[in-house]
Amino acid sequence: MKIVIATALFISTGYLANAQTLGKVLSKGKEQLSTTPGKGSLTNDEVVSGLREALTTGAKSAASSAGLTDGFYKNQKIFIPWPAEANEMKDKLVKLGMQSQVTQFEESVNRAAEEAAKSAYDVFAAAITGMTVGDGFAILNGSDTAATHYLREKTTATLTEKFKPIVKTAMDKVRVTEYWNPLVTKYNKIPLVTKQNPDLEAYVTAKAIDGLMLLISEQEAKIRKDPAAQVTALLQKVFGKK
User: Which of 26, 35, 137, 160 has its CA at a distance of 20 to 30 angstroms from the CA of residue 240?
Assistant: First the structure.
């Protein structure tokens, strides 16, 4: 009986020793993986810099593509439609045979956004440079568009203020009001209709920002997921960990 007990103790002790050894090996392996060159511990400064670089890359790409002719008008993701609150007006005008004028107005609105987009990068760059990210790791480990959402939340008011004069200039350049005024005048003469005159500058400004943010978010998601989009050592270090 004593021999059986001693044997059992020996086996148990050996099993525990092997388990402890295995645990050390696994722990060592994890430690080695965590210290792989280029994927070591990130400092908060590196995270913030990486986020800024990703947003800067996205902003450049967004402003460049949206600022091209048809950048808004032929891109259904960011195409700016007739103002939703004036859809009844649009329907009545189309019935009156003014579809071509309606189309011209929609094109002019999108051309204005394209003009504004040409100046957008400088606006975004200033916002990105001035961005401080206390919760950088939370953003890094958040959704594929967490940095873009953060940028939107922190800068929309400032961007709107800065964008409005840009949009106004762009609208004047492509003669948005010249297309709009005859339409609204014609509509408002129809008996019993609710008079319409949306704030077009505010509408185009909001839609232009929405469109650019969407393009930036797509770039951010690509940088997070696609190693080929991580074109600098910093982006590889920050986003290559995910």
Answer: 26
